[in-house]
Amino acid sequence: MKLKLKQLIVGIIVCFVIQSNAQNKLHTYVDPMIGSEGDGRVFIGPSCPFGMVKPSPDCTVSPNSGWLPMPKEVTGFSQVHVSGTGGGPKYGNIQIMPFSGELNKIDQTSFRQEENVKLGYYETVFKENQIKTEITTGEKVSFYRITYPKYVTKDLKIDPGFFLGEPKEPDPDAREAQQFVGSQIEIVSDTEVRGYSRIRGGWNNGRAYTVYFWAVFDQPIAKYVTWKDGKFYSNTSAQFDSGKKTGALLSFGKEGKQELNVKIGISFLSSLKAKNNIEVEIPHWNFNSVLSALENKWEQLLSRITISPDTSEDYKKMFYTGLYHTMIMPVDRTGENPLWTNDEPYYDDFYCIWDTFRTSSPLITIIDPDREVEIINAMLNIYKRDGYLPEGRSGNENGRTQGGSNAETVIADAFVKNLKGIDYELALKAMLKDAEVLPGGNEEKEGRGGLNEYLNLGYIPYGIDRAGNRTIDYAYNDYNIATVAKGLNHTAIYDRYIKQSEYWKNLWRADYEDNGSKGFIMPKDASGNWLDDVVFGESKIQKPTFKYTPTITESPWYVCHWCVFFYEGTSWEYSLSIPHHIPEVVARSGGDLAFKNRLDTFFEKELYDVSNEPSFLAPTMYHWIGRPDLSSDRIHTIIKNNFNSSPKGLPGNDDSGAMSSWLAFHMMGLYPNAGQPYYLINTPLIKEITFQLKGGKSFKISTKNLSDKKKYINSATLNGEPYNKAWILHEDIVNGGELILEMASKPSSWGTTMLPPTK
Amino acid sequence: MKLKLKQLIVGIIVCFVIQSNAQNKLHTYVDPMIGSEGDGRVFIGPSCPFGMVKPSPDCTVSPNSGWLPMPKEVTGFSQVHVSGTGGGPKYGNIQIMPFSGELNKIDQTSFRQEENVKLGYYETVFKENQIKTEITTGEKVSFYRITYPKYVTKDLKIDPGFFLGEPKEPDPDAREAQQFVGSQIEIVSDTEVRGYSRIRGGWNNGRAYTVYFWAVFDQPIAKYVTWKDGKFYSNTSAQFDSGKKTGALLSFGKEGKQELNVKIGISFLSSLKAKNNIEVEIPHWNFNSVLSALENKWEQLLSRITISPDTSEDYKKMFYTGLYHTMIMPVDRTGENPLWTNDEPYYDDFYCIWDTFRTSSPLITIIDPDREVEIINAMLNIYKRDGYLPEGRSGNENGRTQGGSNAETVIADAFVKNLKGIDYELALKAMLKDAEVLPGGNEEKEGRGGLNEYLNLGYIPYGIDRAGNRTIDYAYNDYNIATVAKGLNHTAIYDRYIKQSEYWKNLWRADYEDNGSKGFIMPKDASGNWLDDVVFGESKIQKPTFKYTPTITESPWYVCHWCVFFYEGTSWEYSLSIPHHIPEVVARSGGDLAFKNRLDTFFEKELYDVSNEPSFLAPTMYHWIGRPDLSSDRIHTIIKNNFNSSPKGLPGNDDSGAMSSWLAFHMMGLYPNAGQPYYLINTPLIKEITFQLKGGKSFKISTKNLSDKKKYINSATLNGEPYNKAWILHEDIVNGGELILEMASKPSSWGTTMLPPTK
């Protein structure tokens, strides 16, 4: 008996080691540099999953993610960033910068000689002074290992006055620009510095937020100066907040070891809480163990989707980096909410849901449904305390809508996928607030701008900002409300909202032809007249007009980006973005053949915009005319032409992982129609994918004979039974099992008859 | 030459002493206890003019001002309070409590044996332990002198977890209840403690605000324990914020002097800023010099209005306490704004303008026009950064409207009184935001709830909260906008708003009779039907209705206070509250005689409510039928029956000094119609009043032969010329001079013909 137990334990350990060896590879496929150059704008520094702290170099104050490619100079390393964003920058707080020299100037800008980035790890060596900086991070604490050359002074700047996106010419009213409010610094002891940075504005034009820090060093400070408002003070250990920029230059001398370790605890409550975050999370000085802990967290998540070992290195990198990018935002700030008691989950940096509702939320739901429940509960708490669900939110404040109130879709998606632990009655109330109460005052902050017109006319008339995409988004959001109301047996609410979900039809100009296709969402005035010519800009004197067509993009720099008929897109794109009534769009386009031609024209004449979310669903729309083969063809062409594993491997802003999750889904041969309970099935890029599901079950998607030539699904089985639908319900996945796709070199009749569900 | 200089200096000193002796009496007439009992709810502790810090005992967590009369127990002394308020309490932060005993319990409640209060000074001795606490204060620093009995330990509790208005049963959603968010405490050295209190909610249902402190002691801490969440920690000098209540019990031992001095710096930015506030404002330990500095500040302000030396002691107390109460709110938080850069004036605790626009703002304009300019500029900054002018604002957030958007009246009042240093073009924009952009989301936070209906129908239909008084207030606010627009030559705006200023007429039910009078503001539905019966409460089953009459008050406890037709008043009151069209109200009431009867009925049948602001103008309305004698009679009767110099000397909530400023104006024989450039002249209660005006001029109001019998104005001269109007323009006052009122025992023809202006 004893012996047997021993053998068992040894066996378990062996298994564990093998398994852990086998699994411990996945995170190495993550390449944080994918999408870092060009328009991707991803955050390249270390981050835990949904991690609050995101340390990274800031290469000037301009870039949204802080980083820019070499040879751009480095201003310093700050602790809070966002990933993949457009619009005005946010954060870039509590910057540090190692240097060597006199403690007499604030600017310590340096150039990089080399740079190395992997998951959880950043390293650079500065050209001028050969100082090496390595960074890793915990959830709320960043960790720096700085190696100075021999015989020079080991100096460090701490600059809580720095932030990204400061206007060059001071303009306290500048839209989307971060604005300085206050900062503070205190040298607490010879190994500790505390303080904060308080900033307002930025992308979401938000109220002031405060980032507190507590920095500790493994060597004593030998000498320091502090500054305020550009003036140095050599005998002053603290600079209190008087609305001026403050900071400190620290010197650790020339003596002792060349390696200086720095931990920076961050908190949104207080410096003491930041200190506690260090004590709880990283009580030691072991850089490598912080890095391993971070790697393990990612490994644990990434290993919930395993793929065929013979997948190409490129595909492995693209796929796991896709998962990674999907899970670095929003950020988990539970315990760090300065607005209400913080024992509930709290998330910030919804940046913004217009971007992420389509694919990011559904992907998180598959990998980590408990996390999605937490995120939605945090959204409901925001509704309860701040009055509205977030659409865009950052720095602890709602701000920015781009189209719909898309939290509705996120909630409906959770509801139809049966996520437990959400108070859906409360969620319905929150959605109805969006749908029934005009936010007013600032109609782009939250809720639904133009709501009264939408409700009174059944559409938003031209002249109200983003009339086109708001109308069609609201109609889909109303469908989401109807979905939840129906499930909760609120029949009257269902009846009302299912009716309103058809309001997109009120802007469908049926006889309008363009590029051989018929029927487009087009501008209409409040009296119900279609507008061929619309007003351009805001000139009250010349009152220019222009001919509005479905291919037109309306935003030259001197017309405000958010005042146009369609936000960041054309009528060609948005007219296809009706996710709940696609058969109706097909019919209104003239039937299957006409719709096929419409889609073909869309892609072939490059009316499709790979770089932005409104076009996300379009490549799969061939499914609704019984041609899943054409969907797969489009998707594969798009990926081949626009995505790769290089720094320029994302064709547009990653938008908190939106672009990356679109890619990850398509590599698996699945695509969600968020807010609805199914995934479309396409030809995967990866031969075998296994989901490790909550509760121990797994679901496998296997292909047979997949190759560049055999790229069409010929037949399929689900758990051994023939499966003839080109879509699969979420519940079929979570029940576990196996979907086998038998591939062939030509399209077959598979998936051509039982079209995706419409209710 | 030398000698002469010496003589000159001696002369100056003698003059100064004499003058200072003569003047130094005025502040002694201030009795902070007037209005402290009953409904007055004034703050009784020390406060600088518009002072940010207001230390006072908290007698349980219930009272709005903290204080209650003996024998109620004292929970402790907190540093931030408001004065005269109704609704849910706000503030009560950073409580301290001296005690003697073991450091083992948080509750150190004591009973008072005696209590002494004068301007700038509070003193009490506790019954159980004979500890004496004396308090005075600076602008941002409170100062405690605590005297312990011999041979006992000198102990002190610091409790940043305390706040007023905490619900007994925890209910995080309770309306108007302050809610705990977080707190922190650190024993910095043996003479310093820092920390903060973070609270949300309260009267204005505001976001979280943070009160930071830095406490210093003139004796070293001998021993301490800290606590978190009710648990004591004896070796822990800091309790970081984890969303739980924290605090410390300090012991200064038995040795040394019995007197412990404590300075508590307060800041809304940081603890270090609070420390700096101490260093800048009270670098010493001299209690008496802090008190003298405070007295001098008040003396300097109060002496801008001097009165006949032979005024009765009671009247002197009532008058100067009236001025005092008018100038303790809103509070000057310049340099303490955590929301945007703080080199502009910043004021908080507009609590609320619905209360203060009528008399408080006009009185500040007379005493200290520069202050009023600062306050208005702070309001405009709030509009710029937060989107709307404040109506109610506290804890750095707008919140609560009761009727109109009365900042319009405050601005118009400044405009017609020609206050310089205000950007009136910006002010007009801010007013137009109120008038044209529905706040939405939360329609009681700011701006104008029900705006769309008001604009579409010309009135707010019954069913929308406070439809009655919102309609008539908005009409007056529109008149205020028209006033400013006209002055700035914006003709189109003027034309629109002067038209809208008549919208009150749309709710005037001309043929409705009640108590012998005709024509009342009455509820109307959206289709234009007058409602005799209106819905009561929110029952969806019984749907009860009741007969709505002009004498009815609608708010039993189970109907929400803010959902009624008229907020805190009846149609009898509000139908007279049309400050811009009084001749029209007279005409619609049936002419002069009918209107006289109407007013007589109003006062004699006690339909007039002395305790609330909607009735403020009514007693002077006899002026508009050429009977200023009757106005004076009413005013004197009202004052005699309702106001005195006792703690119960105010008949209603003082509302940040609204009630007190009403009294002060009438004691001077002047009454403003805020937003319009004149004052009504009544028989003063004080024989001689002199305004020391900005720029060195003075204006004197003298009576001749004023006595209880000779109480009617027989004739008047202004600067020696006969003056026959019962009203005077603001510019006549600021130009300096003398108004002499010749009194007689019977009403004369004085003031009966040239009625107050209407444009």
SS summary, helix count of chain A? 18
Beta content of chain A: 15-25%
State the CATH class of the largest domain in chain A: Mainly Alpha
Q: Report the largest inter-chain contact.
A: A-B, 46 and 46 residues
Q: Which topology of the largest domain in chain A does CATH recognise? A: Glycosyl hydrolase family fold
For the termini of chain A, the CA-CA separation is: 59 Å
Helical/strand content category of chain A: alpha+beta
Shape descriptor of chain A: globular
- For CATH, the homologous superfamily of the largest domain in chain A is named as alpha-1,2-mannosidases domains
Proportion of helical residues of chain A: 25-40%
Q: Rg of chain A from C-alpha positions?
A: 27 Å
Mean pLDDT over the full residue set of chain A: 95
Total separate domains of chain A: 2
Question: Count of DSSP E strands of chain A?
Answer: 33
Main sheet characteristics of chain A: 9 strands, antiparallel
Oligomer: homodimer
Q: Give me the side-by-side strand order of the main sheet of chain A.
A: 4-5-6-7-16-11-10-9-14
Protein name (chains A, B): Alpha-mannosidase
GO biological process, one term (chains A, B): carbohydrate metabolic process
Keywords (chains A, B): Calcium, Signal
Cofactor (chains A, B): Ca(2+)
